[in-house]
Structures are given as C-alpha cells and as structure tokens.
Amino acid sequence: MGRPRLELHEVLSELVDHVYFQPPSGHQMQFPCITYTRDGTQTQHADNELYRHFKRYQVTVIDRNPDTDLADKVEALRYCSFERSFPSDDLNHYVFSLFF
Predict the structure, then answer these.
(1) pLDDT (tens digit per residue) in 31-85
(2) 14, 23, 48, 83: which could join 95 in a potential S-S bond, CB 3.0 to 4.6 Å?
(3) How far apart (Å, rounded) are the C-alpha atoms in residues 16 and 69?
(4) Domains in the chain and their CATH numbers?
(5) What is the pTM for the complete model shown?
(6) What is the C-alpha to C-alpha distance for residues 28 and 54, in angstroms, rounded to an integer?
(7) Cα distance between the two ends of the chain
C-alpha cells in the first residue's frame, strides 16, 4: 500500500526548509521551496485482489536559481520522474511525478 503523506512530507523536508502541501493561492511562500499535491494512483491486482497500490504526487521545485541542485535531489528520489520545467514570475519551476 502507499505510504502516508506525512512520511513523504518528512522526506521532502530533509531536502529543503520550505515544503508546502497544496498551498492555497495567494499564500506567501519562501524560496527555494517544494510544493506537492496528490495527483493520482497506480493500482495492480493479482488473483482478483488488490496487490499493490501507490499514490502519485505532483512535486514542484520552485527556485530563483535556474541551476538549482534541489531539482536533482528530488529527481534522485525512488519512483520519481521529471515531467517539465518552466519559468514564471522570475522563478524557475521543475515539475516531477513521484509515486510514494
């Protein structure tokens, strides 16, 4: 089964001081930071039973530095893959999919 979200929060907090789960719009964030939200699931069945279930999260690294090593640290997490990057409001965003 998927691991608890708070466990993921602890893992991400080891990488950077500021981690936000589903930050509301207009929320004052400090950078560099990581934001994440639940994005889906991956489920496998065997013998008509639930065999494996992972929660998928969209994890975004936001940093003023375009060469941040924080994105590399997130990408190195198990079951994580890079999706895209984009600049917005003088901030660099790196988006990942992470099964946890």
Answers:
(1) 999 999 999 888 888 888 877 788 999 999 999 999 999 999 999 999 999 999 9
(2) 83
(3) 11
(4) 5-99 (3.30.2000.10)
(5) 0.89
(6) 31
(7) 9
| 20/30 Cα distance (integer angstroms) | 10
- In total, the chain counts a number of residues equal to 100
* Alpha carbons 38 and 68: distance in angstroms, whole number: 24
Question: Residue 4, preceding bond cis, omega within 30 degrees?
Answer: no
- Using DSSP bridges, classify how beta strands 33-46 and 19-21 pair: parallel, antiparallel or unpaired: parallel
- What does R_g of the chain's alpha carbons equal in angstroms? 15
pLDDT tier at 89, thresholds 50, 70, 90: very high
CB 55 within 8 A of CB 99: yes
Q: What does each C-alpha distance from 87 to 40, 41, 60, 77, 95 come to in angstroms?
A: 25, 28, 12, 23, 11
**Using an 8 Å Cβ cutoff, are 54 and 99 in contact?**
yes
Torsion sign across C-alpha atoms 93, 94, 95, 98: negative
